[in-house]
Amino acid sequence: MSKPLRVAILTHEDLIPPTPLKDVDDKERLAFQTERDVYVALRKLGHEVRFLGVSWDLLPIRELVEEWKPDVVFNLLMEFQDVGAFQVHLVSYLELLGVPYTGCNPRGILLSRDKAVCKKILRHHRIPTPDFAVFDPGRRVRPPRDLGFPLIVKSVDEEASFGIAQASVVRDAEQLDERVRFIHQHVGTPAIAEEYVDGRELTVSLLGNHRLSAFPVWEMQFRNLPDGAVPIATERAKYDKAYQKRVGIRCGRARDLPEAVVRRIDRLARRTYKALGLSGYARLDLRLTSEGKVFVIEVNATPDVKRDEDFAQSGKVAELEYGALLQRILDLGIRYRPYGKREGA
User: Fold this and answer.
1) Which of 115, 174, 206, 216 is the most exposed place for a label (fewest CB within 10 A)?
2) How distant is the alpha carbon of residue 192 from its chain centre?
3) Percent of the chain with pLDDT over 70
4) Confidence of residue 22 (pLDDT cuts 50, 70, 90)
5) Given this model, what pLDDT does residue 344 score?
6) Who's near 206: CB < 8 A, 6+ residues apart?
7) Mean pLDDT value of segment 272-301
8) Which residues, 6 or more positions from 235, have their beta carbon under 8 angstroms from its beta carbon?
9) In three state form, how does the secondary structure of the chain look?
10) pLDDT one-digit tens code per residue, 137-170
11) Is pLDDT of 177 > 80?
């Protein structure tokens, strides 16, 4: 049993669970379920835990660090000033304050969050990823000559499938123009279009700074998709319970994978993690074709650690119960040293 720690849970100020919970409905509770799960599990481990909610001002972070002196910050803050891309600056600020924190380092977040930069790094390391093109707002949308339809269009830096729907898979220039403009207007970022890889929707989660543990390969299955729909992790597929039930979505350990494919996925996942300089923990989204080819689609350096989400559930299959998983995350955060300093294991 590790010694009790002072742990500050850093999150958005609107996501601190209210007390008591008896008057909160299920839909409202879902918004802060991750924070609730982490808080309860850390308390059960014997740690002293405080929430710190921020949104627009960094000062409360410095005040808590200076006055309460936490041993580690459990970082659940996915945006700052309502901008997801500012997440990296929050982590950099924690490093400047000299306080240990959980999750990925700023450099790893920056490189993995920008899908175009991430793919360029993967290509440099000969890690298979689909061909792509980026479309900036205000410019004419011209189909790239070296890309073949169908394409899937996304935000270049938003996470959690934000802006992804069945309409994201486009099959001609007109649909491409329409979806790119949708991303520009409704998401507010450049758009990235990559060649759509038909195949199984897989993820693999990793834990570690240098010595990595890879959890069992996970799969999102679609058992009752309507005609014409494609099996992709849209916003609705991830978060709409009624839709999940209607189209038969199931997430669980990938079955019937040849051992050679499992080994290939493991090697690709570890190479990707190291190529991007990730730390703490991460989740990779993959596609497996019917010919057995594996493509790295996206890298999430800050996956959800809710008890019933893929990361924690795949860790459970690897015989790492939720409390033990969070303790490992704490230990990795404490041992990590910022880039340029000697790093822990």
Assistant:
1) 174
2) 18
3) 95
4) low
5) 47
6) 212, 213, 214, 215, 269, 270, 273, 278, 281, 282, 283, 284
7) 97
8) 160, 161, 162, 163, 164, 165
9) CCCCCEEEEEEEHHHCCCCCCCCCCHHHHHHCHHHHHHHHHHHHCCCEEEEEEECCCCHHHHHHHHHHCCCEEEECCCCECCEHHHHHHHHHHHHHHCCCECCCCHHHHHHHHCHHHHHHHHHHCCCCCCCEEEECCCCCCCCCCCCCCCEEEEECCCCCCCCCCHHHEECCHHHHHHHHHHHHHHHCCCEEEEECCCCEEEEEEEECCCCCEECCCEEEEECCCCCCCCCCCCHHHHHCHHHHHHHCEEEEECCCCCHHHHHHHHHHHHHHHHHCCCCCEEEEEEEECCCCCEEEEEEECCCCCCCCCHHHHHHHHCCCCHHHHHHHHHHHHHHCCCCCCCCCC
10) 988 898 888 899 999 999 999 876 778 989 999 9
11) yes
Distance CA 283, CA 298 (A): 9
Rounded-to-integer distance, Cα 142 and Cα 71, Å: 52
Q: How far apart are CA 85 and CA 81, in angstroms?
A: 10
Assess whether the previous peptide bond of 150 is cis (omega < 30° from 0). yes
Lookup result for tokens 């380092």: 105
For residue 341, what pLDDT is reported?
Answer: 62
The whole-chain average pLDDT of the chain stands at 92
CB neighbour list of residue 305: distance below 8 Å, 6 or more residues apart: 34, 37, 38, 76, 281, 311, 312, 325, 326, 329
| Res. 342: pLDDT tops 70 | no
Cα(87)–Cα(80) distance, integer angstroms: 6
Q: How many residues does the chain have?
A: 345
Longest dimension (CA), the chain: 60
Q: Domains for the chain: give ranges and CATH numbers.
A: 6-101 (no CATH), 131-195 (3.30.1490), 197-335 (3.30.470.20)
Question: What is the spatial distance between Cα 298 and Cα 281, in angstroms, rounded to a whole number?
Answer: 15
Token output for 88: 């990296």
Is the predicted pLDDT of residue 21 greater than 70, yes or no?
A: no
